[in-house]
Amino acid sequence: MATVTTANGHASEHHEVGSNYLNARKGVLSWLFTLDHKRIGVMYLAGTLFFFMIGGILALLVRTELLTPAGDLFQGDTYNRVFTLHGAIMVFIFIIPSVPAALGNFVLPLMLGTKDVAFPRINLLSFWIWMLGTAFLLYSIIAGSVDTGWTFYTPYSSDPQVGSQAGSAIIWALMGVFILGFSSILTGVNFITTVHKMRAPGMTWTKMPLFIWGIYATAVIQVLATPVLAITLLLLTIERTLGIGIFDPALGGDPVLFQHFFWFYSHPAVYIMILPGMAIISELVTVHSKKNIFGYKPIAYSSMAIAIISFLVWGHHMFTSGQSELASTVFSALTFAVAVPTAIKVFSWVATLYKGSISLNTPMLYCLSFLFLFTIGGLTGLFCSTLATDIHIHDTYFVVAHFHYVMMGGTVIAFLGGLHHWWPKMTGRWYNENWGRFAAALVFIGFNVTFFSQFVLGSQGMPRRYHTYHSASPDLKAIFTKWHQVSTVGSYILAAGLFITLFYLLHSLFRGKKVAEKNPWGAKSLEWLTETPPIEHNFHEEPVCLHGPYDYDEISPDGQGAGADEDDDSPLYLDKKTEAKKAEEPKAEEKKAEEKKAEEPKAEEKKAEEKKAEEKKAEEPKAEAKKAEAKKAEETKAEEKKAEAKAEAKSDDEADKDKK
Amino acid sequence: MSAAHGDHPKFLQHHFHSAEQQASASKLGMWLFLAQEVLFFGGIFVAYGVLRFLYPETFLAAHAYLDVKMGAINTVILITSSLTMALGVRAAQTNNQKQTVLMLALTILFACGFLVVKYFEYSHKIHVGLVTARSFSATGIAGSPHIFFSLYFAMTGLHGLHVLVGIIVLAWILMRARRGDFSSAYFTPVENAGLYWHLVDLIWIFLFPLLYLVK
Ligand code: HEM
Ligand SMILES: [Cu+2]
After folding, report:
1. Where does residue A117 rank: exposed (0-12), middle (13-18), buried (19+ CB within 10 A)?
2. CA–CA gap between residue A213 and residue A526 (Å, rounded)
3. Which of A238, A273, A276, B23 has the most CB atoms around its CB within 10 Å?
């Protein structure tokens, strides 16, 4: 059981009772200029979800066009613009900031037990830059719309004579993505620094929740890969406007160089997308099965391994571009290597579920969906990275299905799971659980119907980015028509599930039942220690971390997967409230009496009293009797622990300093 | 923040425990930002490498049209400015406000000098038509010299923008130094601005031989 904290230095911040980060300040400006990571996270959440919807509607248009072999809904040009916009919005505006900047911003400092990210102003700046970049990208629609696909391949994108690149649309789009990149870099810089420098006392690297590890690995890629995209897009913009002859073959440039540059960023970028999804799964799979994670370190280190390998495999997008066979072979082999850390994670999650006490609530349903869908996505990645098969399936619907299984089936599903998991903490309201489960089922079914059929389409040779297929041979046309129709119907089911989700979440904001507890899931990580919704400065007192984030050994009776910590009964986190804090809480009258006592100099006795009172208040209905017995012993132990933890944290700091 | 924080120094932001934590966090943040800058310029250096590999003779022939003397003068100017910057940081650390201000002002002066020299170089190149590919009009150089000059403008232009940003940042630091914000207890902003300035300097140290001294 987890509860709160100790007096140290930063005593008494005065908080009104019932005041939280949502209502502490009022007015639109108090949001737009807030430095509070929680509010910035919420703004990112609203923004990214909105664009998820826009991108989704564009996708429905694409699917509807493909319902019949003829091009009846759109002209070819329009179709190209629609899918380009869909891809660009989904990748650059939605997925990349979705988990880190929205959920991560909210959760990361809370999990670390700190008051905010290291650079709150830069955090706000990154949100403003995100809005600016989004505005640029959207303005490209008015300026004529881009039809290059989200990959902006040269010479198509660099030649002012071709297609809709004649106007300035491409420049607006390129600058939009360029600007969005800065937002992503700033988030990355902020999170890396926060993880290094802001952990609560006692939170060593291996006591961090795995969510943090995932976001940390993501941030490393954000900082190191995004600038390469930035320079690439900048060069392309100059190429398109002034002509520099770097990418444009007409001027002596090398268009394949652009592909190298682009994928040097964009392959790592797919890990910017999936690592945060994986990070969420590590939380969901433990909390909702009440099991310690199987293989903490392998999962943590595999995130880093993935981050590193991801920089070395970009050439697998270019097997058919004419790059040398040797290069292709090496890239193919390295790509297989990515599957190893990925599989380590998947197996560890499955092993975590084994003999767990699994609650099939909405977050867990999304978590299980992820395990199915991501595994399919990852395995089909191996088909793509095998040279001989890729020649066949490259640029077909097979690839489309593959990356939707990882990006949508992986990241978006995990994002939805995380959203439902942290929603009560963020908003202080419950969504309707039955609707939640129903929608999760619809999403799962709709997703598979939509995208599994695309594997079939691709394996039969249906190319991607075509708006008609009426000129295919009659047999093929029959096959294509059938599976395209299946896929389109699936996309409607998927959309229904997502819209239902939107409605019940919005509904819960106004009508949802208030969340009464601090820790409704009985989770162990620090974000559940604070009030629901959190107070403005996160914690009344700085928490001290004593144990790992998944210590559910009491719950798992046979000790399976237990953290094997010597002392099973000690509390996870030390949490004594200061007198000041207590005085504010108008609850029970006992309190007042206690407070008087508290003034007495006998510190030890006082603390014992406080503990007891607190224990009474504890909402979690857990083995009270047993606890009470263990109490006395525990207290002294806990005290020692805290001191230890502090000392440890100190020596950590010193070690840091020494390094310098 | 409440009165409980009255004993904290003014520069300490409320979410940090101590001045040391704040300083080490902002320095780490700065190094990460610099890493990002290195990769940013890394991209354009790779483009240079690839194109030079494709057009070795052109690069050799075209580079002769750059003014080595001006490039060398600018190199000296930037290296000197790095020295004054370092002295400025030192002065801030030792509570020497007057010297901090002086050194920052000198650094800015050198930076402006660099841009002035660059301005003369650029206007001459533009005048004779040694410019980016699409408007290239000079004659007499074998191969595809426009690629070399495109790269020259792209690389030095990006670097020049960084110099300009540096001037703005340093001016802001200078203003704060005059106001007396910095002391031996708090000088991270000066130090971070210095780190940035050294990087800008370092990039030029690579640009100069790659563009002006092709062999
Ligand atoms: C086991 C891991 C994975 C492997 C082995 C793998 C392999 C590949 C290969 C070889 C391709 C190129 C196919 C082609 O164009 O012919 C590809 C495409 C793609 N993959 Fe993966 N992948 C993996 C995981 C992921 C993940 C996690 C994501 C995103 C979250 C992702 C997103 C994409 C995207 C977006 C494309 C298509 C890009 C485009 O052409 O528009 N992949 N993958
Ligand atoms: Cu890839």
Report:
1. buried
2. 15
3. A276
> Which residue's C-alpha comes closest to atom 8 of ligand 1?
A381
> A107-147, pLDDT tens digit by residue?
999 999 999 999 999 999 999 999 999 999 999 998 888 98
For residue A624, pLDDT over 50 is answered with no
Q: What is the CA A190 to chain-centroid distance, rounded?
A: 16
DSSP 8-state assignment for residue A21:
T
Question: Quick check: A319 and A328 in contact, CB under 8 A?
Answer: yes
Nearest-CA neighbor of B17 among B26, B29, B8, B28?
B8
User: What is the reported pLDDT for A637?
Assistant: 54
Per-residue confidence (pLDDT) for residue B7, from 0 to 100: 59
Q: Tell whether ligand 1 has an atom less than 6 A from the beta carbon of residue A335.
A: yes
Beta bridge partners of B154: none
Q: Do A118 and B25 touch (CB under 8 A)?
A: yes
Q: CB A99: neighbour CB atoms within 10 A? A: 31
Cβ burial of A39 (10 Å; 0-12, 13-18, 19+) is buried
- Confidence category of residue A619, pLDDT binned at 50, 70, 90: very low
A418 Cα: distance to centroid of ligand 2 (angstroms): 25
**Chain B environment of A537 (Cβ under 8 Å):** 14
Give how far B83 is from chain A: nearest CA, Å.
22
Report the alpha-carbon distance of residue A459 to residue A456 in Å, rounded: 5
Nearest to A501 by CA among A450, A434, A447: A434
Q: Domains, chain B, ranges and CATH? A: 20-212 (1.20.120.80)
As given in the structure block, the two tokens for residue A25 are 């300040």
Q: How many CB atoms lie within 10 A of CB A530?
A: 23
φ/ψ of A530, rounded to 5, equals -85, 175
Answer whether A449's CB lies under 8 Å from A487's CB: yes
CB-nearest partner of A231 from B26, B44, B133: B44
Is residue A123 within 8 A of residue A105, CB to CB? The reply is yes
State pLDDT tens for residues A594-615: 444 444 444 454 455 555 555 4
A198–chain B Cβ distance below 8 A for any pair? yes
Burial of B173 per CB tally in 10 Å (0-12, 13-18, 19+): buried
Burial classification of residue A47, based on how many CB atoms lie within 10 Å of its CB (0-12 exposed, 13-18 middle, 19 or more buried):
buried
- Which site among A119, A192, A231 would you substitute to test the B interface, given the most B Cβ atoms closer than 10 Å to its Cβ? A231
Given an 8 Å threshold on Cβ–Cβ distance, is B42 in contact with A189?
no
Q: Is the peptide bond before A621 cis (omega within 30 degrees of 0)?
A: no
DSSP-derived 3-state class of residue A345: helix
Contacts of A618 (CB under 8 A, 6+ apart): A1, A3
Q: Output the average pLDDT for chain A.
A: 84
Q: How close does chain B come to A247, measured CA to CA in Å?
A: 9
Q: Going by CATH, does the domain composed of A2-15+36-511 fall within 1.10.357.20?
A: no
Backbone angles phi, psi at A514, to 5 degrees: -70, 140
Of the residues A148, A270, A394, which should be mutated to test ligand 1's pocket, given the most ligand atoms within 8 Å of the CB? A270
Question: Is the pLDDT confidence value at A10 over 70?
Answer: no
Least confident piece of the model among A152-161, A443-452, B24-33: A152-161
Q: Report whether residue A385 contacts ligand 1, using a CB cutoff of 6 Å.
A: yes
Structure token pair of residue A411: 């990241």
Q: Are B152 and B212 in contact (CB under 8 A)?
A: no
| CA neighbor of A288 nearest in space, from A352, A213, A343, A345 | A352
The predicted complex's ipTM stands at: 0.93
Ordered by start, the domain boundaries in chain A are: 2-15+36-511
The answer to whether the CB of A565 falls within 8 A of the CB of A221 is: no
Under a CB-based contact definition with an 8 Å cutoff, are residues A374 and A405 in contact?
yes
Largest CA distance in chain B: 75
